[in-house]
Specification:
- By secondary structure, the protein is mainly beta.
- It has one helix at about 65-70, and strands at about 5, 15, 25, 35, 40-45, 50, 55-60, 70-75, 80, 90-95, 100-105, 110-115.
- It has a single domain, classed as Deoxyuridine 5'-Triphosphate Nucleotidohydrolase, Chain A.
- It has a 5-stranded antiparallel β-sheet, with no helix packed on it. Strands 5-10-8 form a 3-stranded antiparallel β-sheet. A two-stranded antiparallel sheet has the order 1-6.
- The longest helix is centred in the middle third of the chain and has 7 residues, at about 65-70.
- A hairpin with a 7-residue loop joins strand 2 and strand 3.
- It catalyses: dUTP + H2O = dUMP + diphosphate + H(+).
Amino acid sequence: MQIPVINRSHHPLPAYQTAHAAGMDVRANLTEPITLKPLQRALIPTGLFMEIPVGYEVQVRPRSGLAYKHGIGIVNSPGTIDADYRGELKVLLVNLSAEDFVVQDGERIAQLVVARHETAEWQEATELSKTERGTGGYGSTGTK
C-alpha cells in the first residue's frame, strides 16, 4: 500500500525498525526542545501531512521504550487519523513520570499503524440476542 505524504520536516519519513514490525516510528519536528513536566501534556508536531485511503485509518500509539524508561505516553491512545484529515500530524504526549522529560528534535515519539476499518450503520432494536455473559460488565469475566 502506498500513502501520499508531504514531509515538511528535516527528518526521514516514518519507518519500520524491524522486518516484522506493525508500527512505524515517527519523529518530533521541533525548532527547540519541549520540556514536559510531570503530568503535563503537549502536542508535538511531526511536519507530516498524509492522504490516507478511504477505508483506512492511521493509529498513533505510544512507543514502549519511552513508556517504560521515561513514563511517556499518549493521552488518547491509540489516536486515530481519519482518511479525510489533511492537517499536520501532531502527537499528544503526556509525562506520567515524577521527573521532567525533554522532547528533542528528531526523537522517535510514537508509532503509526495503518489499519483497515469498516463503516457501520446502527440498526435500532428493541431486544438483543442472549449470551452466557449477558450484561456482566467490568470485571465480570475475571471472577473465577
